[in-house]
Amino acid sequence: MIEKAMHTLDITINVIGPIVTQGSGAMQYGLNVAILRDANKRPVLSGSLLKGNIRHALSELCLLDEETHSKLSPKLIDWFGKEGPQSEQDQTNDDFYGQRGSLNFDFYWYLSNPQNAERSSPQTRIELNHEGTIKEGSLLFIESPYLHGEKISIQGQVTFNASEDEALEIKNTLEAALNYCYAFGSFKSIGFGKITEIKSILNKTQQAKVDWPAYTKDHLIILDWTADRPLCMADAPTNRENSFYSRTEITGAMLKGLVANKVLPNSVLHKYLADITFFHAMPLNQNDELVYPPRKSLALYDGPRVDMYGVSSTQDSNRQVFDFLINPAGPDNLCGLLTFSSDFKGSDEELLKTPPYLTKTLLVRNAISNWTQTAEANNKSTDEVIEHNISTRNTAADEKLFSYHCVNHFWSEKLNDSKSANEKSEVNKNVYVKWRGKINLNRVPESVREMVYAELISILDEPLIGLGKTKAILSAKAAKATQEKIVNVSPDKRILITLKTPTCLIVKDAIDAVTPSKDLYQEAFDKLTDGVFCVNRTFTDESLKGGSYWYMRFQKHTGQSGYKPYIETSAGSCFELLIKEGKEEQATILLNQWCKNGLPSCDVPIAQDERWNFTPYDHANGFGEVDIELVSMVPTAKEQAEC
């Protein structure tokens, strides 16, 4: 097998000014077109613009030369990826998923600073009509910090995993494509952004190694990550939407998928990867403290208590504790466990811990028209297609605008308005957000666990490429080992289980409108435990999840006829369980299993082979992570009778 390694291709593109790369959002008063800038206000080119131009250049070169076509055409999909089907009629088992390319372009490619950094005078652009006069409404004011004839340097990297020979081929191919492009940015057809020189240097990546803890058979690895660009970790859309909204955590499924892309076939890790539990990676705040997403409890209530007839009670109105809560000492001792959505008003939010405020970034993208379309595909004559393609070559494609609502990868200066000028200068160095996750190998057979661990950390020592819609690069920064939590139960304990991450516990073709949630979850825990626990009380929140992607990816393989959305039990939902008489030993085993590996979902059997291939809620991918707390309070006679 040909050995592959991580490479970076450092590219410098010299162009002649002016150059315009359009940014979205609010613009300076009077401007029609603004320059794209990063968070530190430096002019940039989008990596997707570079990648799109290079791919189109190579596609055209393939059409112009048969030898180039036979050599490059098969590699374009490997390097740049393939789009999935555009309609449900196109969906098949073979091509439903599309394919992600192996070349990862820097998110932003930086332009050298303008000669006159203070200059921001706009240029004007007009369009003439067929009479040779200015077309009505065609005057544009374009932000232009670069002068005509000014030399501008554009720098960025392309990262990929390849053999030495393939890496050299990629270098030469990208250089040829860039030389063919002629110009970059908006208005390139009228002389903006003309390319004068291309330089590239090929290197093997050198990442600082993480100090990995020594192997022990029963430890849990806590791992911190950082990303190199904004993150858009969006769920699969339920219809043909053009907006994608990022999650605020990196799921274990995403992390395991990035690792799977680098695992060698027939290796020990390849065989046992599905048995490794990757928990969701949650963002740390600026003090490197882990704070989970908000889990608000109805234990806190600011206002008078009102009975069902609307009559106010005379009890204290501040921070009331409802009778149905278990802990009579008050909300300060609830540890955030009895939690679910509530109707907090105003400053009440400050009573609870909240997750770090991750700043958001909106990215707007537009696909580029494909001039190589065939006449048959467009129901037009060949002459009509040629005329249309030439006039729209490398322009924005119709109805192909889409947006990414991302979470930022470094802390914003806006969060530090109270700091001194010297402290604020540190913010401009981009203090990266850390994401903390856990990895547990306890389900891997003990005889091969050390080998699996060694192979896993060799992969994690290199960057993981291609996270989310922005194809971010994740780098491991710190790792430590910790002991797994041990739960010991007894008949006088009530068990509080809180979901840290969502899962699917309710599986029903139809639910009666008056069916108590307690009965639905009792059925779920009976399925998971064969009658070990009695569900005494539930505090939950549910939502429907689904769509064509999940149906094609998971449900169709189970032989299910017809689409049925999943009923997802949200993070923060809590269950109070009582142990049935004589079941203490089984309860202890189950609770410790759930602590280590998460609560299994109920949509597929627990013992299902290749479970990850049949459910989006596989607990080995971080779903169903739980907090377990034991409360010393003997069940009442009524509760015992109901159990």
What's this entry about, in short?
22% of the residues lie in helices and 24% in strands. The chain is an alpha+beta fold and 643 residues long. Strand 18 (464-467) and strand 19 (472-483) form a beta hairpin.
Features:
alpha+beta; 643 residues; 22% helix; 24% strand
How would you characterize the overall build of this protein?
This protein is α+β, with helices and mostly antiparallel strands and 643 residues long. The protein is 22% helix and 24% strand. It is built from 13 helices and 26 strands. Strands 1, 2, 5, 6, 9 and 10 form a 6-stranded antiparallel beta sheet that branches. Strands 11, 13, 14, 17, 18 and 19 form a 6-stranded antiparallel beta sheet that branches. A 4-stranded antiparallel beta sheet has the order 22-25-20-26, covered by helices on one side. β18 and β19 form a beta hairpin. α1 runs antiparallel to α2 and α1 (47-64) crosses α3. The radius of gyration is 29 Å and the shape is elongated. The termini are far apart. The model is unreliable at 86-91, 294-342, 371-378, 384-392 and 414-428 (pLDDT under 50).
